[in-house]
Design a protein that fits this description.
By secondary structure, this protein is an alpha/beta fold. Helix content is about 50%, strand content about 10%. The chain has a 4-stranded parallel β-sheet with strand order 1-2-3-4, with helices on one face. Strand 1, helix 1 and strand 2 form a beta-alpha-beta unit. Helix 5 packs antiparallel against helix 8. The longest helix has 20 residues. It is globular.
Length: about 190
């Protein structure tokens, strides 16, 4: 009998934990959070105190950022992609906008690291999520069995992500919340 939260703030999780303990009930054991190479702040900055204080774990969703980290949007929006669907114009705008184009350029640089490791950009992105010691589970989707098989193979690349490679990715992407926090403290 376990339960978790999804998209709750650390304050809400701590409150639920406290109330559960006060009434001798089971507290939440996991938070389901969006986490990937482009979305890092909650898992890396906001949640660590809860990992340490109450032992809550993390179940991540969207590890491929809706397909952005697969490389499929390198040359625009393919006709059969999520961003081409009716009702996803916000996603298409995100990809084709100025920041989206800058992001794609950074991801092309990250793809060079994937090539060096002998994996796809998708596998690198999944291995990167799995490398985080506070991630207990990664929820992912696949359109085909082949895609699922390739995604599962990301497991073999986790040990290949050395500290140097992780730093190189941080430098390319320029979005490490830990580095941003440290620079704000100076």
């Amino acid at each position: 009998m376990y339960w978790g939260t999804s998209r709750w703030s650390p304050t809400e999780i701590m409150e639920a934990y406290s109330v559960a303990r006060q009434f001798n009930q089971i507290p939440p054991i996991a938070e389901q959070a969006e986490y990937h190479l482009l979305q890092r702040e909650k898992v890396e900055l906001q949640m660590p105190e809860l990992y340490q204080k109450i032992g809550v774990g993390t179940i991540t969703w969207s590890p491929l950022a809706g397909g952005i980290l697969t490389g499929k949007y390198d040359d625009g929006v393919p006709i059969y992609s999520r961003a081409a669907l009716k009702g996803y114009s916000w996603f298409k705008d995100k990809i084709l906008g100025e920041e989206g184009r800058r992001q794609q350029a950074r991801l092309r640089e990250a793809a060079i690291i994937a090539d060096r490791l002998g994996c796809s950009m998708s596998q690198l992105a999944l291995a990167w999520v799995l490398k985080n010691e506070n991630v207990q589970c990664v929820l992912l989707g696949a359109s085909t069995v082949d895609q699922l098989y390739l995604n599962i193979q990301a497991l073999q690349y986790v040990p290949k992500l050395s500290g140097n490679i992780m730093q190189e990715l941080d430098k390319i992407l320029g979005n490490s919340p830990k580095l941003k926090k440290e620079s704000n403290m100076r």
